[in-house]
Hints:
Helices cover 28% and strands 23% of the residues.
Amino acid sequence: MLMRLHFLVVWTLCNAWISCHPASAAIVNADDGPSWHKYVRAPPSRLVVPKAVLTNYTAGNVTGAAGLIDGKSVAHLTRSSNESDSPTIVLDFGQNVVGLLKISFAGSESFAKGYPGLRLIFSETKEFLAGKSDFTRSDNAQGALKIVPSGSDQIAVRPKRYDWLNQWGCEHDGQVCSDGLHGFRYMKILLDALPADAPHTSSFGHVAISSVSLEWSGYLGTPDTFTGWFECSDANLTQWWYNAAYTTEMCTDVFRANDTEPRGATSDSILGKMVIHDGPKRDRDPYMGDLAVAALTSYLTHDIQEGVRNVLEDLAQHQRDDGWIPPASINNYTLALFDYPLWWVSCSWDYVFYTGNISYIQSYYSTLLNVLDTYYPAHTDKPTSLLRRPDGYGDYAFIPRPGVAAYYNALYVLALHRAAELASILNKPDDASRWRVRAATVSMSFVGELWDGSVKAFFDRNCIGSGCTAHAQDGNSLAILAGIAPSPSNTSTSASDILDYLEKALHQRYGNSFYDTGGDGIGSEFSERVYPFISYFEIAARFRAGKIDSAFDQMRRMYGWMALQDPGITFWEGIGPGGKPYEDAFTSMAHGWSTGIVPLCMNYVLGVTPVSPGFLTWNVQPVVGDLTWAKGQVPTAQGAMSVSWSFDAGEDSVHVVVDAPAGTTGTVTMPGVPGEGNGNANGGRQTEVLLDGQVVPDGDVARRAEGGLTGVKVQGGMRHVIEFRKM
Ligand SMILES: *[C@@H]1O[C@H](CO)[C@@H](O)[C@H](O)[C@H]1NC(C)=O
Ligand SMILES: *[C@@H]1O[C@H](CO)[C@@H](O)[C@H](O)[C@H]1NC(C)=O
Ligand SMILES: *[C@@H]1O[C@H](CO)[C@@H](O)[C@H](O)[C@H]1NC(C)=O
Ligand SMILES: *[C@@H]1O[C@H](CO)[C@@H](O)[C@H](O)[C@H]1NC(C)=O
Ligand SMILES: *[C@@H]1O[C@H](CO)[C@@H](O)[C@H](O)[C@H]1NC(C)=O
Ligand SMILES: *[C@@H]1O[C@H](CO)[C@@H](O)[C@H](O)[C@H]1NC(C)=O
Ligand SMILES: *[C@@H]1O[C@H](CO)[C@@H](O)[C@H](O)[C@H]1NC(C)=O
Ligand SMILES: *[C@@H]1O[C@H](CO)[C@@H](O)[C@H](O)[C@H]1NC(C)=O
């Protein structure tokens, strides 16, 4: 019976993946569940245990530390005099984790006044595991919230047997304090006391520990929780997809007063709600710009959309009278960023298109009107219609950018186009056309004011003074995604030229930097700093423009680099010179905004994008690159949508299998195949299209305007096999 079942499952899936390719057949195993399960990174349960003792850090009189891993012994830390080192144990949880540390004590003895003291030091990396945590909540706190100025969490270990949970607060009035939640991979346990904690703790005594564990606090993304999944012929890319999912899971949590960003971020309107924080260790406040990537990762992996909606709604409800929308709750919703209200617009489009919740945009339509028709017009240069950032405002990287900057304006055009689509959905054609006209005007001025024909890319800024010769990754990439380049009226501004320049000027072995220069008044490290956040938009622009090889190359350099460095798995907030964490210990080594590989693989490699809210209509246009197959599932408001494709180089054909929910329709477009320069071109050769084994007559093959791509329309509700064959 078991054998028979096993055979059946293999046969059915094999049939579903049509080509029955050895790679896909071999990885199906009925006993272990779907083949992608092995890539999932989440711990199996909310109680997480350490994986190893880093014995070379052990110091002083420590016995039985291995018992914290195998449970076979109790660990003892003993110190009786100044002659011996402070007893020290370093535990490695094996990967970055987040939550409240729990210690089961088996007893203690005091050798001096006060209980023996323990100090706990947390770090995401070994490099920054030192005398204090790499970062702890008190580091950003002022006044009463700054309870651990030492940078470590303290315990006065009582003689009885008990369990200690790392809750934010102090054992005594302002003494023996602990910061509560931590995001970390490594933790150091030190028998030691702070002078400030006298007379409650002493650095002498004996402490017995029977176990150390972590109460996981993020979203526990076990295999059964994935509503979207992905797998392809490059196991590294597949693994990084799950690494990215895990990174965003670590950031997804309930907003709580005692573990959020301490600088005025706690707000009654968001307390107790599910959100996507920026990172597990740092920020712990949801920021709008970060959601431009993290929300996509979330929609495409797990069914927890309210984590995004709660943030969109809360920030909309705090819109200022002049139309500006705060970037986050920090500083009581006053942190002055100029770009983040535009990300609110763009993220609102993503929310509506990925979830199909149109009532959301109905409810917040006046917010959209205020931001686009009141706030930004007040910061527009009249002669050019271009945005100019007001003094005192920053952006996602706090870049000094006086003058008219490409980034804000490209993002503005993207937001106007997206807002126009939302207006059309709500049947508000006047708003839609006003925003489209404005987008066209801004685009024209953008090309005229910012194009640098000498390198064939847009300047970072049109300005006088220093920094005016630089070119930046953000403005150029977004100009391509917003359709500014190639400008419909000006073929000299080519996306391909821009991307060739960026490839040459920004290339680092750990990704592409966000500026082409560190001179001329630009931050000295900018040409060596990589933001995986903004790099997502460059890679998306490469896929859009058919620069397939360089898109894959950049993904492998950047995600591959981070995956191989400490702490492994999770993707960092920023990469600095030499490929190091860009702000040393302060750097968040798990940041949702750096998880763009999830939408990149889903939207481009698998090729699935929504064309109308909730994927009622959709497009499937895979990218083959150097892969031979890919498969996955995209969660939609109508149900799961399965797509797989396989490329047969010998036959020069691509099989695409699409099983979309009933009631939906879409177009399956000819994938870009290798060896054709522009990956999306048809190479001048005739392509035969077969739908479910039948040749599709020429008249039924949609010849889409952009690039003359070949596609075929199909209905959801059943599985379709589409074969594109070169003749
Ligand atoms: C302990 O060993 C690890 C390698 O396993 C190394 O990275 C680390 O620097 C060592 N630490 C000390 C304190 O020797
Ligand atoms: C280490 O501590 C244990 C008690 O846990 C004690 O029996 C032993 O003598 C100590 N070793 C040294 C070298 O002090
Ligand atoms: C240990 O050293 C500290 C300072 O160096 C001193 O204040 C303390 O009295 C010493 N304690 C013992 C038990 O020797
Ligand atoms: C932390 O916040 C939670 C939820 O508001 C509360 O239950 C808990 O008591 C708080 N802990 C401390 C130590 O304040
Ligand atoms: C996958 O990554 C490893 C490094 O972790 C590398 O050695 C290997 O060549 C990569 N495989 C592919 C197919 O790129
Ligand atoms: C935050 O700002 C609002 C509106 O300006 C004000 O009513 C409220 O008192 C402020 N809250 C804090 C904690 O400062
Ligand atoms: C859709 O959005 C509305 C308004 O923001 C909200 O009240 C509702 O709960 C959302 N529906 C779902 C299914 O999330
Ligand atoms: C195209 O843009 C370039 C750069 O701004 C400009 O020099 C040229 O005049 C434009 N051509 C047209 C036809 O608008």
